[in-house]
Amino acid sequence: MEYGTIIREALRMREAAYAPYSRFRVGAALLTKGGRIYTGCNIENAAYTPTSCAERTAFFKAVSEGERAFAAIAIAGGADGTKKLPLCPPCGVCRQVMAEFCDAEDFQIVLAQSEETYRICTLKELLPLGFGAELL
Ligand code: THU
Predict the structure, then answer these.
(1) Catalytic annotation, pick one of 9, 15, 55, 134
(2) pTM summary value
(3) Rounded Cα distance, 14 and 125, in Å
(4) Per-residue pLDDT reduced to its tens digit, 69-86
(5) Which of 72, 76, 121, 125 would be 10's cystine partner, CB 3.0–4.6 Å?
(6) Angle at 21 between CA 15 and CA 26, to 5 degrees
(7) Which residues of 92-115 are buried (b: 16+ CB within 10 A; e: fewer)?
(8) Which phi and psi angles does 97 have, rounded to 5°?
(9) Which numbered atom of ligand 1 lies nearest the CA of 54?
(10) Known catalytic residue: 2?
(11) Per-residue pLDDT tens digits for 22-80
């Protein structure tokens, strides 16, 4: 699988981040199994806890449009003005949201530092022994 398009979209979405408190900008691009892309950015809040991460913004946009099957997500994050982005792994809450909708063995998480430099993990690698609907 070629992830160039979602990596570029995640990098582009960093520009849309609303992050006046942390100044840490994150962009995400979520690829559905049908080939659609839903983007997201982090959206902070003066009360801090209502903040949404880029990944959850993308997931909630997609799910609210009726999407339920996802292939991959690209994530690009780093402090405002950073020239060389670090790897930005998703937070625990976002991993749990991914687990609600994605097959852990199959869903690909593309941690992008640039178009050329990225690392791909499965959700299973990032959330082993996760809690899920099968337990309820
Ligand atoms: N953030 C994300 O958007 N995604 C992550 O995976 C990690 C953290 C955001 C939340 C907050 O706006 C800022 O980055 C610093 O934590």
Answers:
(1) 55
(2) 0.98
(3) 25
(4) 999 999 999 999 999 999
(5) 76
(6) 35
(7) eebbebbbeebebeebbbbbbbee
(8) -65, -40
(9) 3
(10) no
(11) 999 999 999 999 999 999 999 999 999 999 999 999 999 999 999 999 999 999 999 99
